[in-house]
What we know:
By secondary structure, the chain is mainly alpha-helical. The protein folds into 2 domains: 3-126, Orthogonal Bundle (Arc Repressor Mutant, subunit A); 127-181, no CATH class. Helix content is 57%, strand content 9%. It has helices at residues 3-8, 11-37, 43-54, 61-68, 72-84, 105-114, 119-124, 129-150; strands spanning 58-59, 88-92, 99-103, 157-158, 175-176. It has a 3-stranded antiparallel β-sheet. The protein is globular and about 55 Å long. 14% of the residues are buried.
Amino acid sequence: MTETEDARFSPDEYFMLWVLIAQTRDAILRARERDYARFGISNERRAILFIIQNHGGRTTPVEIARDLFRELNSVTEMLRRMEADGLIARHRGTGRSKVEVELTDKGREVFEQSLHNQTDRRIFSVLSRSERQRLASLLFKVRRRALEDLGIPEWHLRFPLDPNGAENGPNGGEALKGETS
């Protein structure tokens, strides 16, 4: 964006973009909650299952908290409840962390089932493939700037399963990285 374009974009427009992103996120999360209810999990639990799977099926509460931008104590409490429900198992840590968590067979099964929800497909199908790719590119760009502002090094999502069925990369998926433009 040039300085001239930027000058025409008032602070109210920036706020409205934030509101639009926040409302869109909230609406999608609410729709996903209905879908995940049939698996007996919430978006938060689904996100934790994803993070654990994304780290090769075993990770630490600190890594989960970092990846989800959550406080460690709230993640720890969620992990306790998930362990009680048989979704994860906690073990003595092997490195600096005193505790590591891993998915149980039940946790892996619930995670795999939750990959096949129709909500995301139904919502994002209003966009063409090229529009979805452009949206992802723009969101990566905004996320990168927000992480820079927070002083957090950029991280990359690794999807456990490639939506196109390709068996590449660790965990049978491929890295999704934002393009720089």
